Amino acid sequence: MSDTPGIVVNGASGRMGRMLVGLVAESPAARLVGALEHPGHDWIGQDIGEAMGRPELGVRVSDDPLEAMAKAQAVIDFTTPAATTALADLAAQARAVHVIGTTGLTDEDIAHIDTAARHAIIVRAGNMSLGVNLLVQLTKKVAAALDDAFDIEIVEAHHKHKVDAPSGTAMMLGEAAAEGRGVALARVADRGRDGITGERTDGHIGFSAIRGGDIVGEHDVIFAGQGERIVLRHLATDRAIFARGALKAALWGIGRKPGHYDMMDVLGL
Fold first, then answer.
1. Which of 21, 120, 142, 207 makes the best surface tag, with the fewest CB within 10 Å?
2. Could you please report the per-residue DSSP string of 57-110?
3. Are the C-beta atoms of 215 and 158 separated by less than 8 Å?
4. Torsions phi, psi of 158, nearest 5?
5. Residue 196 pLDDT > 50
6. Which CATH architecture is the domain 6-124+239-267 placed in?
7. Residue 212 dihedral angles phi and psi, to the nearest 5°
8. pLDDT tens across 116-130, in order?
């Protein structure tokens, strides 16, 4: 049992945090050794199991990342950009694999994570599911095969509580489409349309975001040409796919060389 890798969950009270706590606690391949929340959170000092309304798990919620990671091999982090970039430095100090599922990261945030990855193993992805990562690969291939006569639109839908748009997955798909076309996404992205916008610019990649209800995650990549359309789609119906992917990434990262990896590396794609 003591040889089983220890995992810390950051943002343990959140929607994904709770799911990860339950998954790791029940996994025969890992041990839950830490649960983190921000200073002042009501759960600090409580057993994470009891705080979640479950039996005790023997792990108390802490606001001290270094203490929590002292006996861990990995930390899984679905929180906020500010919390994630701060944790990246501490995970590097602790020599713990840092699995990042946080979305809404800026170029500056990613540069900060790149710096931490010189000394740490970081696995970062806008989406941890196998299906989405296959969709990313397909998007890149289709975009490379079609010229600007086919307009590319990415439509994503999520639950009403999601705070960032476009989603991290939509941005992954946009990056894949841009890479397939051999262009920089920042130069061709249309991320909002309102009012009299004029005609669509050839070669641009459009994004639309839908928010409502309890939608787990839906992503369409539309290639619209004259007289025909190609639609690539992924529908997530259970948030557990992201938690399982994150745990897989954490276990995969243990023992790797320092670097900034993604789910394509984890899945061998």
1. 142
2. -S-BEES-HHHHHTT-SEEEE-S-HHHHHHHHHHHHHHT-EEEE------HHHH
3. yes
4. -145, 170
5. yes
6. 3-Layer(aba) Sandwich (3.40)
7. 180, 150
8. 999 999 999 988 998
Count of positions (residues) in the chain = 269
Q: Domain map of the chain by residue range?
A: 6-124+239-267, 130-236
159-165: average pLDDT: 92
Question: Over the range 114-150, which residues count as b (16 or more CB within 10 Å of their CB) and which as e?
Answer: eebbeebbbbbbbbbbbebbebbebbbebbeebeeeb
Kindly give the pairing relationship between strand 121-124 and strand 259-261.
parallel
- Does residue 188 register a pLDDT over 80? yes
Residues tagged active-site? 158, 162
Report CA-CA distances (Å) from 19 to 46, 116, 177, 203. Answer: 17, 27, 31, 40
**Is CATH 3.40.720.10 the classification given to domain 130-236?**
no
CA distances from 222 to 207, 229, 235, 253 (A): 10, 7, 15, 34
- Over the stretch 204-232, which tens digit does the pLDDT of each residue have? 999 999 999 999 999 999 999 999 999 99
Residues 6+ apart with CB under 8 A from 21: 9, 12, 32, 35, 48, 52, 57
Answer whether 262's CB lies under 8 Å from 124's CB.
Answer: yes
pLDDT tens string 14-33: 999 999 999 999 999 999 99
Q: Which residues are annotated as a binding site for NAD(+)?
A: 11-16, 37, 101-103, 125-128
More confident residue, 3 or 78: 78
Statement: residue 43 has pLDDT above 90: yes
